[in-house]
Amino acid sequence: MTTITSLKYYLIVVLTICTTFSGLAQVKTAEAEAELKSIMKKLEVVGLSVAVVKKGELIYSNSFGLKDIEKNTLLENRDIFRIASISKSFSATSILQFVDAGKVSLDDDFSNLVGFKVRNPKYPNTVITLKMVMSHTSSINDSEGYFNLDAINPEKNVNWAKCYNNYEPGKGYRYCNLNYNMVGAVIEKLSGERFDQYVKHHILDRLGLYGGYCVDSLDASRFATLYEYDAAARKFNAAPLAYAPRSEDIRNYIMGYSTPIFSPTGGMKISATDLAKYMTMHMNLGKYKGGRIISKKSAKIMQTKVSDEEGYGLAILTTADMIPGKVMKGHTGSAYGLYSAMFFQPDEKFGIVVITNGCNPTYTRGFNDVLRATVSSLYNSFIK
């Protein structure tokens, strides 16, 4: 066999192998997508966006169903959602940047940071620290609301004491949205930048992501309409407040106090694909594509359980209930009919993002069934 003949034979073999693997991959993807569509039909899902990361690389992303029921518009990968409580991790990441810079300590008295007294009246001598607030062990609750800091400010609300639970700060756990809206105000005080701008400049732009907390600064044509399910009428109703404009509030903005209008606790708008890139940064302990967002030490702190009761760290949850046999790190979100999940396995270096803009919500072991079923399906199809 001549050298030229041997080379031709080799190229044919390589091409045949590549074609075979490509064909198998296409079949595997088609089977995975068929299963996702079956899940959507069974659980009455309006639209679904997903992304899968393996070994630090985005290996799959796709969108299914409708972005807008009334207009019969199909959901696309570029479309963005208000992702609800996964947003807390962006606020926590911002705080850890200040910790890395030596501008703040997680053990600092939160009262001194936020600018008004934050003390449980039942335990007036126990300091409520920044870490307690970020880990939901502060003893603070949402009973007086959380979209305005007046709720817990003793100078603004005569019922401020109702914002505190009966247990001593640091010795109990209760998930609380007010905690992170206050954290957003602290970010403004530490940075001198408006909260939404800080996150944009120091996290989103550095990662090359499109999104943000300020509705007015984003392309409204990319918003996926969120739908709340009316079980009695068996129909979906659009939730217009999900993307309510903030222009009037911004005109009267007070830095370090008006922050909840952007909802640091739940107001991030971003696509599933870009959220997966952000997730990869946390999976890689603060680093993405050669750039570092937070230190390795700070990334580990965020992912370390403070509360064994719920497995909560600093806006990152540890759970073995999402994928059987796998301990995952991440967060979920739910608001206005949306359900979202961002979970990764730090040792095996895979992660999955799932977002639905509306479904018939059912739950198993604390997780929305659409999220659980979709995450498991994607894991079995693309990771396992």
TrEMBL record:
Native source species: Pedobacter heparinus (strain ATCC 13125 / DSM 2366 / CIP 104194 / JCM 7457 / NBRC 12017 / NCIMB 9290 / NRRL B-14731 / HIM 762-3)
Taxonomic path: Bacteria, Pseudomonadati, Bacteroidota, Sphingobacteriia, Sphingobacteriales
Lineage: superkingdom: Bacteria
SUPFAM superfamilies reported for this sequence: beta-lactamase/transpeptidase-like
Signal peptide: none
Domain Beta-lactamase-related positions: 36-361
Protein name (Swiss-Prot/TrEMBL): Beta-lactamase
